[in-house]
Amino acid sequence: MLSILRLSPKSLVILAPVCSSFSYMCSSQAMRFWYSPLGNEALSWVKAANVMATRVTLLCWLAASLGHVFLVEQPGSARFGDMPRWRHLCDSILYAS
To answer: Hey, which residues does 14 pair with through a beta bridge?
Structure first.
């Protein structure tokens, strides 16, 4: 957070959260599906990944509010894009032409 606050105006913020819990190959273990993006939070590693996803989303909110551009590295098959807070961020700051 402090690193983002210290950036020069209109900087690029690159975030690369660990995607192992969000990958397609892991969806059967984590129980992450389009209808249940938070997965099985009884598993500690799934819950930790959800906390990390929330923190990444909050950092993106911070970067956007300060006028920075952000990039989140995630494979196309990852379930990260289905997370409720991430969807809210995308719905709030993106607009259709």
So the answer is: 71
Beta-strand relationship, 12-15 and 69-72: parallel
| Three-state secondary structure call for residue 71 | strand
pTM score over 0.70 = yes
**Residues 2-38: pLDDT tens digits?**
999 999 999 999 999 888 888 888 888 999 998 999 9
Q: Which two tokens stand for residue 81?
A: 């894009």
36: DSSP letter: B
Q: How many CA atoms lie within 13 A of 36 on its CB side?
A: 11
Q: How far apart are CA 65 and CA 62, in angstroms?
A: 5
44-65 and 84-93 helices, crossing angle to 10°: 20
